[in-house]
Write a structure and sequence with these properties.
This protein is mainly α. It contains 54 helices and 9 strands. 50% of the residues lie in helices and 5% in strands. Strand 8 and strand 9 form a beta hairpin. The longest helix has 25 residues, at 266-290. ANK repeats lie at residues 523-555, 684-716, 720-752, 753-785, 786-818, 885-917, 921-953, 954-986, 987-1019, 1020-1052.
């Protein structure tokens, strides 16, 4: 398909900048606009070639060609920006530039533009692969490969618009082979790439088999603009002009050129339509200016050139007028035409005037003349036009540039080169903002490179004058920096300029003139720094020929070798080798902490990193304290891998990861070839194998181990006493750990902190590693400093698979740590009965006592854990076991007040002796339950046969405690099983005494009802009534008297209750007793 989307109308609404592929400081923009007003250019297509090459369309240029191309680019870019599936790329070939881009530069420039219009995720695999490989290796790309990369990227778009301006210039400046290669690439573009190019050579269109040619037909507005400009520059024409003059003239020109379509040859048609209209207007105005009566448009139309080859004949009158002009006019015209022909960008009128004044400064011949922009055009007799909007001059037609008459008329480019050097090399122009100084500062080197082979002594003197003047060089450099919005410098020498602008022949001249070869710029960099930075290999050679110091450091402490990694790998490698061969150090560190060696290791390319490593006589020598080449490689290689891993698993990151692996593997192989020592510790104790175990890849580790297969390096420990195996396991490098074990790492290694490999992997539940270590001889019963084995940690982690594996491999199920529960208890606490059953079936001891003499059942009862207790009871454990405090599990169940636990244990107790086991204080479970006032527990224990009459060490029974506490409900439970309700404790107190002492009237009432003896005396001879009087409890005294207590009964000391009340003056009890005596109710029982 042809380019159907360009439409029928383009409007000049903005600028289109040239995409310039040239490096150095000679870049400039080629900007084209319409003149002063918005011009409309209509296009129509004439199909006259076969459709087997559908991607190409050609523009055969004439006047207005550059404007057309700019408009096409501007419009197509807008369309591409509106559609993410489309892209627009373009390229300008520059007239007069001897350094035209090569095929690879052209396609590299177009590829870069294409990539800028892509998202990061939409990069062709071929492009991504080249990029990733180029970081860590030498990638020498053939010229045609850039074209292939462009094709690969282009197919990711739905449509790519490719626009080339002045394609014919490529043939003018490049050799035939390069030109042919370029044309062949156009014919191999994919179908989705649509090409439009401009050319003044019709044979190119035929050669490329273009489908369509765009015929450029200027509109009335364009002719009107041109005619108006000519009239403004001619006083004679202004006097002849009337109101209808211009419209009639334009109408006549358009009419006459429309009739030119009688020509059959396409080239002639295009030539007539593009060149013809403007040339008719120009010729007519020229003749009108000379003789208004002889000017005839029809005659001039008939004399138009058929193609560009006849244009020279058509313009000869203009050349003759220039030659025949007065000296001043001729000198000025020569100067204007020289600048219009050789300038690197369209020169401004101001620039031409300034340069002319400077050229005439050497003589006073034209000093009194006043020049302005309007005075430049008449002397050129129509060979030059002025863009009033931009104030720039250009030839009437680009083909004039190659005309022999013009070449004979103008000065050589050497004149401009000398003008530039004179301007910037002296104080002849003090205003650095002037047009001439700015142009000279920007393009002096470009002009000098074009003419330097002419061996002009004056030119060389000017060059030496400039490069030898630090002040002027610095001024020019800072002007360039300001234009590019970069930081200025305090001083720059001519040697630096020679390095930057690639002038190797001037290095020796400058040093011979007295400039120090190692002189620095204000940032501390020498010319060698600059030459290396910008890839000027010949300048590097020239600097070394003058004994440049290779290890000078700039303000960042960087040497020239630090700068070598900035450019293309192939060129950088040659420069780096040149520096290394001349004793440039690869280990000097910058302020950023990088040496050339470490930087190359980290960022590549592999070839340069290899070069730096090879430059070391002994790779085991520390480049700085604690650091060898191998450490640099391992350290920075790890950083690179980490940075890539953060990018995720995208296609690009995977490819980069592969490139990094190849880079690291290659450098490791090189170091091993150079006999690197793996068991040699650095100053701070660093060891290669330790680092590889922590951070390295499996493949690199295997290389290191196979390098010294029979040594014990695999077990060599770092200053902390840690082995490679330990570091690998702590960093969870399981593959690394396996390789270490396979190469002799000790699987049962001992450490002061008790660390063991098998325990370590069991802690983190890595079944495969547990199995691997056991199969390699790992001790399943090895313990750490806490006394725990691997099984302990497997049980703690609830890991059934590892638990079973360890048990089947012979692990002792009863090993437990110090002050730690047993394994089976841990499993039961976690309610993991399956592991508990597994442990029990393999010999786990449920009755094993801890440091307090407690069995598992003791502990679970103390914790109130019914499920574990049930599991234990189901295994028929002994419930009568006493711990060191004499307590049974039932005691702890009562203390926990767990009704279910008490019921479980009591119900399964085989005898009363078991259920009535006493603790170290003689208390039975029933006594504890009574003291807890827990009626449910009391009933359960009594129901399961617990004795109410069992005494503790004080001789107290459960009934005594119940009476003392007023636990009436328990007394009612106990009384049916009591054989002697007046049973006393060690102090002779019966239950009724405890009830009185506790002040529990409810207990007294129940005991009296059950027949308790009210006159029983304790060891101190006190009856219950005497105790009540001594406590001066009127209510208890009254209750006992009403129950039948004798107030006159004497105790063992001969005193009655009345005596105690009277003698001790206990007023409350005395009042009660006196009332009893007075009312004679001492024997009345209390109903």
């Amino acid at each position: 398909m042809s380019h159907q989307n360009l439409g029928t109308e383009f409007k000049a609404e903005g600028d289109c900048e040239q995409y310039n592929s040239h490096g150095g400081g000679d870049q400039h923009n080629h900007v084209d606009r319409s003149d002063r007003r918005q011009a409309t250019i209509n296009n129509y297509y004439g199909i006259y070639l076969p459709k087997h090459n559908p991607a190409l369309a050609g523009v055969l240029g004439g006047s207005g060609k550059s404007i057309l191309i700019s408009l096409i680019i501007h419009s197509t870019l807008q369309k591409a920006q509106e559609n993410s599936k489309s892209a627009c790329v373009y390229f300008y070939f520059n007239h007069g530039d001897t350094l035209q881009p090569s095929v690879s530069q052209l396609w590299a420039a177009l590829l870069e533009q294409l990539l800028e219009q892509n998202s990061d995720e939409n990069i062709a695999q071929e492009v991504q692969s080249i990029f990733d490989r180029s970081r860590y290796g030498v990638i020498s790309i053939p010229p045609i490969e850039y074209f292939n990369l462009f094709k690969a990227q282009a197919v990711l778009f739905e449509t790519v618009y490719l626009i080339i301006d002045s394609l014919n210039i490529c043939a003018d400046y490049n050799d035939d082979t390069s030109h042919q290669t370029l044309l062949e690439t156009f014919q191999k573009l994919p179908d989705n790439v649509r090409v439009i190019f401009s050319s003044r050579d019709g044979s190119l269109a035929n050669h490329l088999l273009v489908q369509k040619k765009i015929k450029v037909k200027p509109q009335a507005a364009d002719i009107e603009t041109y005619v108006n400009d000519r009239i403004k520059t001619s006083r004679k024409l202004r006097l002849q002009q009337d109101k209808s003059f211009m419209k009639d003239l334009v109408k006549s020109i358009i009419h006459q050129t429309e009739e030119s379509q009688m020509f059959d040859h396409p080239i002639s048609i295009v030539s007539k339509l593009t060149i013809g209209r403007f040339l008719i207007a120009r010729s007519y105005l020229d003749r009108l200016n000379e003789d208004a009566f002889r000017a005839n448009i029809k005659d001039m139309e008939n004399s138009l050139p058929e193609d560009n080859c006849e244009l020279s004949r058509f313009l000869q009158p203009s050349f003759r007028r220039v030659e025949q002009a007065k000296d001043w006019d001729k000198a000025l015209a020569r100067h204007v035409l020289t600048w219009a022909t050789h300038a690197r960008e369209d020169p401004t009128a101001e620039l031409v005037i300034e340069s002319f004044k400077l050229s005439s400064w050497h003589s006073s011949k034209y000093q009194d003349l006043t020049l302005d922009a309007e005075s430049l055009l008449p002397v050129c007799h129509g060979l030059v036009t002025l863009d009033h909007q931009k104030g720039t001059l250009r030839l009437i037609h680009e083909s004039v540039r190659r005309d022999q008459s013009l070449q004979e008329l103008i000065s050589s480019e050497t004149e401009i080169a000398m003008m530039c050097l004179e301007c910037i090399g002296t104080d002849v122009i003090s205003d650095t903002s002037s047009s001439l100084f700015s142009y000279s500062a920007t393009f002096w080197a470009s002009h000098f490179h074009s003419v330097k082979r002419q061996n002009d002594e004056t030119l060389d003197e000017l060059m030496m004058g400039f490069l030898g003047n630090v002040s002027q060089v610095t001024k020019v450099w800072n002007l360039r920096q300001a234009i590019n919005d970069r930081q200025k410098m305090d001083w720059v020498t001519g040697l630096h300029a020679a390095a930057f602008f690639d002038l190797p022949d001037w290095v020796d001249r400058l040093t011979s003139s007295g400039i120090d070869i190692d002189s620095t710029s204000s940032d501390g960099q020498t010319a060698l720094h600059w030459a290396v930075t910008y890839g000027r290999r010949e300048v590097v050679k020239a600097l070394f020929a003058c004994s440049a110091e290779p290890n000078m450091q700039d303000s960042l402490k960087e040497t020239p070798l630090h700068k070598v990694l900035n450019g293309p790998t192939e060129n950088c490698l040659k420069i780096a080798k040149y520096l290394v061969d001349r004793n440039a150090s690869v280990t000097i560190e910058s302020t950023k902490g990088f040496s050339p060696l470490s930087w190359a290791i980290r960022y590549g390319p592999t070839a340069i990193a290899s070069l730096f490593i090879n430059s070391q006589e002994n790779v085991n020598t520390e480049t700085k304290p604690g650091w060898t080449s191998l450490r640099e490689l391992f350290h920075h290689g790890h950083d690179i891998v980490e940075s890539i891993s953060h990018d995720g698993k995208s296609r690009g990151s995977i490819t980069r990861g592969r490139a990094v692996k190849n880079h690291l593997d290659s450098l490791v192989d090189l170091l091993l070839e150079k006999r690197v020592e793996l068991n040699q510790k650095t100053e701070d104790g660093w060891l290669p194998l330790i680092h590889a175990a922590k951070h390295g890849s499996v493949s690199i580790l295997r290389k290191l181990l196979e390098y010294q297969p029979n040594s014990n390096v695999v077990n060599q420990r770092d200053p902390k006493g840690r082995s490679p195996l330990r570091w690998a396991l702590e960093y969870e490098k399981w593959g690394t750990a396996q390789i270490l074990v396979q190469h002799g790492s000790e699987v049962n290694e001992n450490n002061e902190d008790g660390w063991k490999p098998l325990i370590a992997v069991t802690k983190v539940n890595i079944y495969e590693m547990v199995q691997f270590l056991i199969n390699k001889g790992g001790d399943v019963n090895g313990r750490d400093n806490d006394g725990r084995s691997a099984l302990s940690y497997a049980v703690r982690n609830y890991n059934k698979d590892i638990t079973l594996l360890l048990i089947t491999k012979g692990a002792d199920v009863n090993i437990r740590g110090e002050n730690c529960p047993s394994n089976i208890e841990i499993s039961l606490r976690h309610a993991d009965l399956s592991i508990a059953w597994l442990l029990y079936m393999h010999g786990a001891d449920l009755e094993r006592c801890d440091e307090k003499g407690r069995t598992l059942l003791h502990r679970v009862c103390l914790a109130g854990n019914l499920p574990i207790a049930t599991f234990s009871m189901n295994q028929s454990v002994n419930t009568a076991v006493l711990d060191y405090s004499g307590m049974t599990p039932l005691h702890y169940a009562v203390l926990k007040e767990s009704e279910k636990l008490v019921h479980l244990i009591a119900s399964r107790s085989i005898s009363r002796e078991t259920i009535d086991k006493t603790d170290n204080k003689g208390a039975t479970a029933l006594i504890l339950a009574t003291r807890k006032l827990n009626l449910t527990l009391v009933k359960s224990l009594v129901r399961h046969g617990s004795s109410c009459e069992s005494k503790d060490h004080k001789g107290m029974t459960s009934l005594h405690y119940a009476a003392s506490l007023g636990f009436a409900e328990a007394i009612q439970v106990f009384i049916p099983d009591i054989t002697d309700i007046d049973m006393t404790d060690n102090t002779g107190n019966a239950a009724i005494h405890f009830a009185v002492l506790g002040g529990k009237t409810n207990s007294i009432h129940l005991l009296v009802e059950k027949g308790a003896n009210l006159e029983v005396l304790n060891n101190e001879g006190c009856s219950p009534l005497i105790l009540a009087v001594l406590k001066d409890s009127a209510a208890i005294v009254t209750q006992l008297i009403r129950a039948g207590a004798n107030i006159h009964a004497k105790g063992r000391n001969g005193c009655s209750a009345m005596d105690f009340a009277w003698n001790q003056k206990n007023s409350k009890s005395r009042v009660v007793l006196e009332k009893v005596l007075q009312s004679k109710i001492s024997h009345v029982r209390w109903a």
